[in-house]
Amino acid sequence: MNAESDEREESVAATGPTAATGDVTEKVDAGPVLGSKAPHFIKRSRTLHLSWQVGVFVIGLAVVGAGIVMLPLPGPGWLVIFGGMAIWATEFVWAQLVLRWTKRKVTEAAQRALDPRVRRRNIILTTIGLVIIAVLVGIYVWKFGIVMPWKIEE
């Protein structure tokens, strides 16, 4: 890689993709640039960049693994998993695309949840569920009474 090609890459990254129509070139908005966020001096050396990617992958894998362990255990499992994906997204395009898709789906779900009809339906379903649970607990207490799991005699 020489300095001329580095300057060309930086100018393309700074301007983003373009679409030529006749003699007029117009800018096409494709969102943030995908790819490695490693510092430029690391990208220059193939060995250093590969080592950087392996390190990012291992750290992201450890964080995602911790999140998976937290799913059945107490802890913010999904939050930690998405944190690991964000670590991977600093280096890998596939993780950036997964996070972009996830953000879009979460935004769409939040917009749907703000719809008054959906909110009313969710409130009704939650109320029905709580009533069913209360009835089942009441039947259990009526049939078996309240028994502590330990035997304490006075």
Q: Which percent range describes the beta-strand content? A: 5-15%
> Helix tally?
6
Distance between the termini: 85 Å
The gross shape turns out to be: elongated
* Strand order, sheet with most strands: 1-2
Residue runs with pLDDT of under 50 for 5 or more positions: 1-28
Overall strand count: 2
Radius of gyration: 27 Å
Mean pLDDT: 78
Main sheet attributes: strand count, strand direction, barrel closure: 2 strands, antiparallel
Structural descriptors:
single chain; 154 residues; mainly alpha; two-stranded antiparallel ribbon; 6 helices; 2 strands; 69% helix; elongated; disordered N terminus
Topology, element by element:
Layout: H1 3-15, E1 18-21, E2 24-27, H2 40-44, H3 46-70, H4 77-89, H5 93-113, H6 116-144
Antiparallel strand pairs: 1-2
Helix pairs in contact: 3-4, 4-5
